[in-house]
Write a structure and sequence with these properties.
Strand content: under 5%
Mean pLDDT: 90
Number of domains: 2
Structural class: mainly alpha
Largest sheet: none
Radius of gyration: 22 Å
Number of strands: 0
Low-confidence stretches: none
Order of helices and strands: HHHH
Number of helices: 4
């Protein structure tokens, strides 16, 4: 195993350990942790088996396998952004409804 593979494996395991610690402390919810845990597993697998990226890139006709890694990283970040945007939209709707309910309750108390 090369030095880069050892560093990548350490990084993947650190991601997994960090995510599980955040889950244990209740600092992150399961639906968000799943994507990050999957990322940690993929990094660890690619560190253990570095030729896997070449095996995946070749049938996809990707000339430079690191480009596949860059594309995959961008896709993961895009998924995270979309997921968080959906969550923000849902929370904005809930906040608006709660504000309306508080205003109605305040109005009824003032009467």
């Amino acid at each position: 195993m090369s030095g880069v593979s050892i560093i990548a494996l350490g990084g993947g395991l650190a991601i997994l350990g960090g995510i599980f610690e955040l889950l244990r402390r209740g600092r992150i919810r399961e639906k968000y942790a799943l994507l990050w845990a999957a990322t940690g597993v993929v990094v660890a697998v690619l560190a253990i088996w570095p030729g896997l990226i070449n095996l995946i890139a070749k049938p996809l006709h990707i000339v430079d396998p690191p480009n596949l890694l860059l594309f995959a990283a961008c896709a993961v970040l895009l998924l995270v952004v979309v997921q968080l945007s959906c969550e923000i939209s849902r929370l904005e709707d809930k906040t608006r409804v709660l504000a309306e309910e508080v205003a109605l309750l305040r109005q009824s108390v003032d009467r």
